[in-house]
Write a structure and sequence with these properties.
This protein has 261 residues and is an alpha/beta fold. The longest helix has 16 residues, at 185-200. The chain is built from 10 helices and 12 strands.
């Protein structure tokens, strides 16, 4: 049996999709990276399937695994804008380049919801440094879950909240993506079952993340249960297509309709 080469994001919110896959190394070869690196590996052909930022779907002839995705409807907690003052005062915005989907989302929200046109400054994910010379910063993933923004005197604007307030729809941040013949129906079914098993094991995943720290474990468990939504139903597909259409209108990629394995 040939092992499928998977590239997965290393953040906590991805663990429910990879928890079961890690336990079947004869079928899956998995490497972990930040989302942008995972997308680059897929574009290069170094992996067969990537759990990549959804904006990257526009960059190739790709298909999505149906029914599987990482999303939210409302607060996501780990994709946020941190501002030193009112949004209208933002002239320069530092952006965490770890995930291009979140960068695209904040650009869409700036145009259509916040009605501002800041200069975007690519930056490493260090919130204190990011807001030293910029009025606001986009931070994503585990660093956003763990940072104490109030200690830095910053206001947090959750982009999941803002997207749903603007559109009424859920938002999908990442999904299994690959070229048309990358996998068959058997693998699709196994990836769906892995999501079900991982969601069932959220408490164990939170404990793994917490590494014995009760406060961190409890925060991770709340995040996985209350913020992240797993799956790719009709509403999620509609929300994702709307996001991709907005992104294409901003020149971030060509217009494409979603297609599935």
């Amino acid at each position: 049996m040939k092992r499928l080469r998977l590239g997965a994001v290393s953040y906590l919110n991805a663990r429910p999709l990879t928890w079961a896959l890690d336990r079947d190394p004869d079928r899956w070869s998995i490497r972990y990276d930040v989302p942008a690196a995972c997308a680059a590996l897929l574009h290069e052909g170094a992996i067969d399937l990537g759990l990549i930022p959804c904006i990257e779907y526009l960059q190739g002839d790709y298909r999505l695994v149906p029914g599987v995705g990482i999303g939210s409807k409302g607060a996501i907690a780990t994709v946020a804008l941190y501002a030193r003052g009112p949004l209208m005062s933002i002239r320069r915005m530092a952006i965490d380049t770890s995930s291009r989907t979140s960068v695209a989302l904040v650009k869409i929200l700036c145009r259509h919801r916040f009605q501002i046109n800041p200069e975007f400054v690519p930056s490493p994910p260090d919130l204190k440094a990011m807001t030293r010379d910029c009025e606001a910063a986009l931070l994503i993933g585990d660093p956003a879950l763990e940072v104490d923004h109030e200690a830095l005197g910053l206001r947090k604007v959750d982009l999941g909240v803002e997207w749903t307030a603007m559109t009424g729809m859920p938002f999908i941040y990442a999904a299994w993506t690959g070229r048309p013949k990358a996998l068959g129906l058997t693998e699709v079914d196994l990836l769906k079952k892995a999501q079900i098993e991982g969601v069932r094991e959220r408490e164990a995943i939170a404990a793994e993340y917490g590494r014995g720290d009760a406060v961190v474990t409890a925060r991770a468990a709340r995040y996985l249960s209350d913020n992240v939504r797993y799956g790719l139903g009709a509403a999620e597909v509609a929300g994702l297509q709307l996001f991709l259409d907005y992104a294409a209108d901003l020149g971030l990629g060509p217009k494409r309709r979603l297609e599935f394995f």
